[in-house]
Amino acid sequence: MSNTILNKVNKALEEIRPFLISDGGNVELIEVKDHIVKVKLTGACNGCFVNQSTLKLGIEATIKKYAPEITEVVNISA
């Protein structure tokens, strides 16, 4: 995966991270491969019952805003 896509993904995560931290959680980028981003939700986000909503509506939507070529965001800690 190109550095450009990786930079876009990192920029998107930096935008969403303060919201996660304010709720006691965070997100860690694991891998970007074949237009799929793998992340690990940590802290309060890991066990939260709405983490799928956070993942799809928050993290994935923000990443796709910066990098529309990304097709999916997957939480590997699920």
TrEMBL record:
Family matches, as SUPFAM superfamilies: Fe-S cluster assembly (FSCA) domain-like
Gene Ontology BP term (one): iron-sulfur cluster assembly
Domain NIF system FeS cluster assembly NifU C-terminal stretches: 9-74
MF terms in GO: iron ion binding; iron-sulfur cluster binding
InterPro entries: FSCA_dom_sf, NIF_FeS_clus_asmbl_NifU_C
Entry similarity comment: Belongs to the NifU family.
Name this protein carries in UniProt: NIF system FeS cluster assembly NifU C-terminal domain-containing protein
Source organism: Apibacter adventoris
